[in-house]
Amino acid sequence: MSEHPSELRYTTEHEWVRVEDDGTATIGVTFFAQDQLGDVVYIVLPSVGATLQKDTRMGEIESVKSVSDLFVPISGEVIEANQEVIDHPERVNEDPHGAGWMLRVRMSDPSEVERLLTGEQYDQAVAS
Fold it and tell me: Which HAMAP family does the entry mention (predicted)?
């Protein structure tokens, strides 16, 4: 059984995207990413209003093992940063596809989502 929900889309950099009913997108890191990182202790995210370009750096995530860049899976404007995950980075380990989300974005090009990996494709990518 997959740890990666099928309704999400994924990047090879281990971020996920959920398209919400209102057409916005929620972004986080995958179960696989948080598992590889270990205990997450610090997160830096862009501010509300920031414009993000697909495949560029959007912040960083620090664990007891390492510091890693976070990359933008889809272009758009940040409409919300999850203050709970900034204040309590361990939420990423506890619930990476739920309470551990990082950003909500107003997408500038919704078609970018279709070019991301499906859950099955992502599972295959991390299994190899």
Answer: GcvH
- Report the alpha-carbon distance of residue 50 to residue 37 in Å, rounded: 26
Give the number of domains in the chain. Answer: 1
Q: Per the domain annotation, does 124 fall within a domain?
A: no
Name residue 46's amino acid: P
Percent of the chain with pLDDT over 90: 95
> 5-9: long-range contacts (C-beta < 8 A, 24 or more apart)?
5/97, 5/119, 6/118, 6/119, 6/120, 7/119, 8/97, 8/119, 9/73, 9/113, 9/116, 9/117, 9/118
Show the tokens assigned to 76: 């758009």
Residue range(s) defining the domain that contains residue 79: 9-113
Q: Is 12 helix (H, G, I), strand (E, B) or coil?
A: coil
Structural domain includes residue 118: no
The Cα–Cα gap between 124 and 22 comes to: 30
**For residues 65 and 79, what is the distance between their CA atoms, to the nearest angstrom?**
30
